[in-house]
Amino acid sequence: MLDTxxxxxxxxxxxxxxxxxxxxxxxxxxxxxxxxxxxxxxxLFGIISTAISIFITNVFASIIFGIIAFSFxxxxxxxxxxxxxxxxxxxHANPNKQxxx
Length: 101
What we know:
The protein is an all-alpha fold and 101 residues long. The protein contains three helices and no strands.
């Protein structure tokens, strides 16, 4: 029976959960230290992750890189939302950041 069970869906679910959990503090830190200008880094790494996802031959790894890619793309929106949350006082602003945006 165990030889017919596939754990790929469960593993992809766990990986997705962990990736999303990693990206929340990543967005918060990027906005804190770099500001909204960090959006282009998320775009760049999203494009790189997309390319890896397309060209990698392992299906499981391709799916994981696809999830990572779209987490980077979603973070572009989130970094601007984070800036709004900082302006509302929901998160701390970086007092040392030169370029306030």
